Amino acid sequence: MDAIIKPTGLRTGSTLTEIVRVNGLRKVYEGKQRVVAVDGIDLAVREGELYGLLGPNGAGKTTTISVCTTRVLPSAGSVCLDGVDVVASPALARRSMGIVPQYNTLDRACTVYENIFFHCLYFGFSRNDARERTAQLLEQFHLSDRASAYPAQLSGGLAQRLQIARAISHRPRVLFLDEPSAGLDPQSRIAMWDAVRALRDEGITVVLTTHYMEEADALCDRVAIVDHGKILVEDTPAALKSSVGAQKIYALELDNYEDAPQLAGQIRELQGVFEVEPTPTGLRIFAGSADGLLPEIVRASNPYGLRDLTVTETTLETVFIRLTGRDLRE
């Protein structure tokens, strides 16, 4: 029997059942250089949830998704999807999942229409049902006017929408999206976000990986921040950002950065400053929105050769920085 979970902070606001369960997942690639890609991940995704794995390239996000979608065998641990063990019964598990990998997997010899239509047939639709479902998805994803086009004739944004449409054509319970907006221009990215949000209305659970903090913040009900094959923290985007305590981050670049520890001591005494951390070229300051703090930071820093100063609001990247000491995209 599925465990009943009462989620906190979910935008859907309802009691949901667990549909994806990952226990003790570990993946080691043996070879000349042994690589531990996933190192003991545990997570549970709730039905109807938009769940994100956020982390830099090489963090283990894609490997985790690859195991969940039966493309990679784990070294240890288990994954259950809709009550099915994906290692023990991969064919059965695949009937409940849709997959959009990082790379374009559209059949270049088939039209937009045929890419969806043949996918439906593969999953057992009758020809009439496949035609009906294909027409529905072309309309839903605003691709009807490109039905006779080939994938090579599509923009990156349209191709990605087609991949999502094809992936859900057999009405899966869970859709896995691996870096769905990689390579898309800002307008196409926003259109893709809207398409993903609309999947909730169909009752589809979405699990996505991304290294874009804005994407995780905009789309996800819950986010797990991943680094070096481990989940560092997991919660709603709002809760993760509030856990930092700071509202603003000041990044200082100094000419005399070898004297940064002395400056850090001075800045820690300023009202509204929560924490000061060294960086390779200066300091990173976590602070509240106290009035007059910026001029005081500048005044204190000038004797140390203040070269540049940037101010940003708290983001999910701030959480990653606090956990790892480095930027999310490093």
Give a verbal description of the structure.
This protein is α/β, with parallel strands linked by helices and 330 residues long. The protein has three domains: 1-96 and 173-191 and 201-234, P-loop containing nucleotide triphosphate hydrolases (Rossmann fold), CATH 3.40.50; 99-171, no CATH class; 245-313, Alpha-Beta Plaits (2-Layer Sandwich). It is built from eleven helices and 15 strands. The chain has helices at 61-68, 90-94, 112-122, 127-140, 156-167, 186-198, 213-219, 237-243, 260-268, 293-301, 316-324, and strands at 4-5, 16-29, 35-46, 50-54, 76-81, 84-85, 97-100, 174-178, 205-210, 222-227, 230-235, 248-254, 273-279, 282-287, 306-313. The strands form three sheets. A six-stranded mixed beta sheet has the order 7-8-9-4-10-11, sandwiched between helices. Strands 1, 2, 3, 5 and 6 form a five-stranded antiparallel beta sheet that branches. The protein has a four-stranded antiparallel beta sheet with strand order 13-14-12-15, with helices on one face. α3 (112-122) crosses α4 (127-140) and α3 runs parallel beside α5. Residues 1-15 have low confidence and may be disordered.
**DSSP strand content:** 25-35%
Shape: elongated
The computed structural class is alpha/beta
Whole-number total of structural domains: 3
- Figure out the total of helices: 11
Q: Sheet bearing the most strands, described?
A: 6 strands, mixed
CATH-defined superfamily of the largest domain: P-loop containing nucleotide triphosphate hydrolases
Secondary-structure element pattern, one letter each: EEEEHEEHEHHHEHEHEEHEHEEHEH
Computed CA radius of gyration, to the nearest angstrom: 23 Å
Q: Helix fraction?
A: 25-40%
CATH architecture annotation of the largest domain:
3-Layer(aba) Sandwich
C-alpha termini separation: 42 Å
- Total strand count, please? 15
Strand order in space, largest sheet? 7-8-9-4-10-11
* CATH fold assignment of the largest domain: Rossmann fold
Mean pLDDT: 90
The stretches of 5 or more residues where confidence is low (pLDDT under 50) are 1-15
The level 1 CATH classification of the largest domain is Alpha Beta
